[in-house]
Amino acid sequence: RIIIVCYGDSLAVKRGLSTRRLVEEFGKRYWLALDPAAQAAHNWSLTTGGGIRAVGIGSGVTGEDGDFVIIDDAHKNREEADSPVYREKLHDAYSADIDQAFDFFHGEWH
Q: Are 85 and 92 in contact (CB under 8 A)?
């Protein structure tokens, strides 16, 4: 199960939806199919296990099953990236919401 985290819920939903569309289009090639009971843009599953949970920072993923976290666009813009106050808020959200056991792949401005 992959958790995608973005600066806001709307961007996270876009990422989850675009990934789901790839599974819909190409999944059969890799024996992947969407679970009909779990197909929300932000939270969907595969019939074989796994899936996507897409959330905005601070939305909370505590208690969610996950094997891998992708942090995509943690900052909305350069102003937020340069703000010590926002960076501290971001750090606190990560520390509170995301289990340290996850593997992380993300780009940083800082």
A: no
